[in-house]
Amino acid sequence: MSDCIIIGNSAIYGGGVYTVSALKLTNCVIFGNQASEYGGAYSYGTSLLLLNCSVIGNSATNSYGGIYCGLAENSIVYYNNAPQFPDAGGSYSAHNCCFGQDVSSGSGFFTNAPLFVNLATDDFYLQSNSPCINAGNNAYITLSNDLAGNPRIVGGTVDIGAYEYQTPVSMVSYQWLEQYGLPITTNTDTSSPNGTPFDVYQDWIAGLNPTNPASVLVMLSPPATNNTSGITVSWESVSGIDYNLLRTTSLTSVFATIQSNIVGQAGTTSYTDTTATNNTPYFYRVSVP
């Protein structure tokens, strides 16, 4: 189901959506539905996928006002109501989502209010300062337009929710800027509050702290070794970021990737180049894809 508005329905279980088989909803608004249990959307098991959806203002008499089970990506689940688990419950996972409650499984989610244009009149477009702007993950995108038919990715990174804000002034996640107390302006992306060579946009991409001068992406000096099985190189890193390692034998030559998608560790990440086994000089560089 794509580009749908599911509104004002009622049931005993699953007021808006009820599924016992695989169901994917993209660019959908699930709003104002009601049930005894599972007001917005109910999934038996984890067969429901919400992609760039907005689940708003649903209610349940007993529990699970918003969603129950399933997987949410780039979605907003907020302002739902129930005596227990007002927004979500069951075996669900959220990635790059805006939820009205803490999420126990997933990544890239936050609980900041989504800041709709006018919640009272059911206008679920995003305000110009919404934390949902640029806060999604482009890897999840399957459609080129949002629910209103506007371009889905504007500013380089997809927004969270059914509607894409069309005139962002920053290419950085607005929620991330808010997290570090940085202004949402056209100049912020290219500034460096911590005084490092990395600007704010680069800090965001690399998962660094733009207000901490010690938070950098830098190669560490390799230890001296007579090991003929290769060279181990290390760099300062953070968890949750994948890295590419590049190498050349001359600084006048192009660096080539020798290993991609190295999972970053908190503090330091290392990789052993098992092909560096002779007296040739080797120069390394690390990058974020």
Brief descriptors of the model:
289 residues, 7-stranded parallel sheet, 2 helices, mainly beta, single chain
What does this structure look like?
The protein has 289 residues and is mainly β. The chain folds into three domains: 1-169, no CATH class; 180-214, no CATH class; 219-287. Helix content is 4%, strand content 35%. The protein contains two helices and 23 strands. Strand 20 and strand 21 form a beta hairpin. The longest helix is centred in the last third of the chain and has 7 residues, at 200-206. The chain is elongated, with a radius of gyration of 23 Å. The two termini are 32 Å apart. The mean pLDDT is 94.
List the helices and strands and how they pair.
Layout: E1 5-7, E2 10-13, E3 17-19, E4 23-26, E5 29-31, E6 34-37, E7 41-43, E8 48-51, E9 54-56, E10 59-63, E11 67-73, E12 76-78, E13 88-95, E14 98-99, E15 106-107, E16 116-118, E17 123-126, H1 174-179, H2 200-206, E18 219-220, E19 231-237, E20 242-248, E21 256-263, E22 267-273, E23 283-287
Parallel strand pairs: 1-5, 2-6, 3-7, 4-8, 5-9, 6-10, 7-11, 8-11, 9-12, 11-13, 12-14, 13-15
Antiparallel strand pairs: 16-17, 18-19, 19-22, 20-21, 20-23
The total domain count is 3
Sheet with the most strands, sense and barrel status: 7 strands, parallel
- Beta-strand share of residues: 25-35%
Mean pLDDT: 94
Instruction: List how many beta strands DSSP finds.
Output: 23
Helix content: under 10%
